[in-house]
Write a structure and sequence with these properties.
eight-stranded mixed beta sheet; alpha+beta; 10 helices; Rossmann fold; 36 strands
Amino acid sequence: MKAFRIVLTFLALFSLSAAENPYPPGPDSQKQEGVPQGEVIKGVFTAGTNSVFPGTVRDYSVYIPTQLDRAQRAPVMVLQDGGGYQAVNVFNNLIAKKEIPPLVGLFIMHGRVKAPSTNALDRFNRSYEYDGLGDNYARFLLEEFFPYVERQHGLKLTTNGNERAIGGASSGAICAFTTAWERPQEFRRVFSSIGTYVGLRGGNEYPTLIRKTEPKPIRIFLQDGENDLNIYGGDWWMANQAMQRALVFAGYDVRHVWGTGAHDGFQATQVFPDALRWLWRDYPAPIVANPEKKSRQPVVREVLADGSEWKLVADGFQFTEGPTANAQGEVFFTDIPNQRIHRIGLDGRVTVFAENTGAVTSLKFGPDGRLYAAANGKKQIVAYDPSGQATVIAEGLESNDLCVTSTGRIYVTDPGQKQVWLILPDGSKRVVDQGVRFPNGVQLSPDESLLYVSDTQGQFIWSYQIADDGSLQFKQRYYHLHLADGSTGSGADGMTVDRDGRLYVTTELGVQFCDQAGRVNGIIPKPQAKWLSNVTLGGPDFSDLYVTCGDKVFKRTTRVKGVRSGQAPIKPAAPRL
């Protein structure tokens, strides 16, 4: 029987006879006399050519409780694979008991692209839509399916993530978790049954990412059985336990129910009513990240201050870059398209420091107190005095990012030519490295013995030892970064360091910070879904983490202290190996 169950489709799992069911569902899963029965409407959704999943067709059903107030926006629960779990009966019974709010149920099948003839197969999108990481499915729901359901069925669906739940089994379960993981402000309650957190399309990465990423406001219920699949993609039983342990480690509001079942829906159907009670408990109180402050993550314990959140510092720009702090902790940044450099005072006031800058892309202070800038529009490296007057330091070179040593040497990245320049205090320049695919950010170690260069199109930060004459030696692909789903490069851009030797790198996933041994210890998600270009530590005591992200500048409070550009070298403690 076990081998037979393994090859069953998810929908067929719920059709086996009651005699074969070791986990019979309870009364909350049965139709109860006297309980108002909600309406179930079936439909077909056909995606357009501009859809997230173009050309797909999918069946769906909408559950509408009789208690729904159509004048108000309704809470929602999405179930992949068209439903299951005797969900309609459970919704009817728990809503009648007021144990969950009157919610709209959306039971959605995976998409398929219909074959052009009977001699060909449909393209079945289930694994692509469900097993893949990234925000595709969340975007599909938010941008296409929810608006369609509202128009088609005259409903008003909630826009509040605290009022949205999502669940599924197997691949549908990892799809539910991914949707909330990618959009925690939009989906906060997750039901996961026999989840496919294995090596099909990157799901095996989740336990590591959960442990390293700042906790998100998600509540999750996990179910699995010890006889679940153990096949080419991985061991489902062990993977679900790894998920549970990672979620506990990171301080999530998580509950699990383990059993002896196989890759089937028996136990999940039995526990579904209790799972919903747990997921919706205390509603409408908001679900928060790390609710009991039990996270053991380095990102929380060692770097971010208690209660720290991203705060908007400045907006209204086109593209922000190059944040750096002066000796007082004031932060300067550039708005490249508008050719301006701005200063953020210690009082938070933002002013213009310099204009007509030549599309400056990077800023760093030198030991002489001047602000050095990569003015790529003019093919120059310039230095600004405190009044904003510029002096040309070097010219005739392409530049993107720069850093300045305590002796006045300048290292400059040139992505177009795949090289790194060294500019000496006398203005002479020479190429000191070539061959990095897209050398972007450049940063000194706190003791100035090492130079780090980010490769936007690769996965690693390159490390070099700096020789006495400023040349670079012992080049290594040293810092190993995590990649966003579907990306072949990390999107690594700007960098900064703290006095303990951690390296902070802006990437597609957010600010990844690493220990001196080259390992990512934590990931701080972006403040908004735009390009995260650069990072620095500034403020009165150099403990505020500033980032330039798209058209805005954000900051948050940390427990660490930054290393000011151009200051005397600092030797950090040796890393734990």
